[in-house]
Amino acid sequence: MAVVKRAKQPFRFHTRLHLSELTGLRASTPEELLELIKKVSGSSIYHHTHHFLQQHQYLSPEPPNDFAYWVSAALGEDALGEKLASIDTIQFASIRSLRNKIVETIEAYLEEHPSARRRFAAPGEEFHFIKSVSFVFPTPDAAYDLTEFARILERIGIDSIYFHLFEARLRLGRATNDFSLWIESSLGEKELAERISKLDPYTCTLESLRAKIIQMIRNRPGGQVECRG
Known about the structure:
Layout: E1 11-27, H1 30-39, H2 42-55, H3 66-73, H4 78-85, H5 95-112, E2 127-143, H6 146-155, H7 158-170, H8 178-187, H9 190-197, H10 206-219
Antiparallel strand pairs: 1-2
Helix pairs in contact: 1-5, 2-5, 3-4, 6-10, 8-9
């Protein structure tokens, strides 16, 4: 039987409570949208690129971001909407870099299509900026090895998985997700950590991500982790 590696520092699971808050800022034209994207808080950019995942975590993405939807539906600029929707969110390690890509995409489009600057949303169709407010709480759950980690992961709430895979990485500017960081730094399981970090969390539901991570742990060499269901 393989020896189970125990970490000096356990993985402590956290969860989060999410609230959405109106900022009072709104845009009626592509240029107004662009200028507000440049200056709103990072929590607003995060909301408009991630709230679909938070609200519909059991459905299958790929989620459109709100900017892409609005320029297509309210302004009729389908080509710009497609360009914004094609931004691969997982490539960005911070909200700042994601914001910059969105800004660059809109600026390039308006430069190429100056007539788009004259587009106006109908009354009631303006883009209203919302920001995401999160409150993070520790749970009673802690794992010292991968067996414990997988068993907790089976039953931990979806909000905890969301926090450790999405929010901690992008909003807190961490190099990778919390799971991979702990598995490599505390257990020395570099290969497993890299495999988990390569999962695309934007093309899977959170439940399928849970199942995939548990399966990866079970299937690693010597890694027979009991798994219910």
